[in-house]
Amino acid sequence: MRIITVATLAFLALTAGVGAKPTTIRIATGEYRPFTGQDLPGHGLVNTHVRSVAKAAGFDVEFHYMPWKRALEATRRGIFDVSSYWYYSAEREDDFIYVGPIQMDTIVFMVRDDFPTEDWNALTDLSGLRIGVVPGYTYTQEFWDLGDSGVLDLFEAPSDEANLKKLLAGRIDVFPVNSGVGQHTLENALSPDEQAQLRTLETPLSTTPGYVLVSRSAPGGVSLAAALQRVVDSDEFQLTN
């Protein structure tokens, strides 16, 4: 994440117009703890940062929670101005402007402790395994392409927590998960005995920057994206994982 200093906030807020009432940005988001969450402090680590970026650019924010696929589609149609947060996918360029990066995420493969290998070399090594996924998550294009072509057997679940429980029950063999989300879910949804039954493979699927998406259909979307990007690009920021 990028850290905003108080001085930067003050300066950029002043440049947005002294005494002007901030415009409110409507942001479609979803549950992705600890980074986004309706009942988390500040709506989660990433959404706290998104609010700070918006404030520095002279905007207020409203977060609206819904399933991720719905958040993306509603923002694409301009019902919401922004969606937080997503990985890059070229197919979205026509509908959205990427602002960021605002976060660096590492996606790992989680398995049961009795999984027969410590690592993988190519995604095709996972062929024949039951792989849990959450619809709407980006993962990587290669991963989804191999699933679409039938090389990988993908089984959908509504959340990472649901996939963890399917993994424990032996209903899937492996699933990709953000390392921070996986650790948070392990600690908050599983008992210590259950946690001890799971581990991650050594090689991550990806280390990926996260962005907010600004709708090209929303009024003033281009200028909004430019204002937010100026804050993200400020020399006062430091990118952290």
Automatic annotation (TrEMBL):
> Which portions of this protein are annotated as coiled-coil regions?
none
The UniProt record lists the Solute-binding protein family 3/N-terminal domain at 29-116
**InterPro entries for the chain:** Solute-binding_3/MltF_N
Record's signal peptide: 1-20
Q: Which UniProt keywords apply?
A: Signal
Pfam families, sorted:
SBP_bac_3
Taxonomy, superkingdom: Bacteria
What's the protein name? Bacterial extracellular solute-binding proteins, family 3
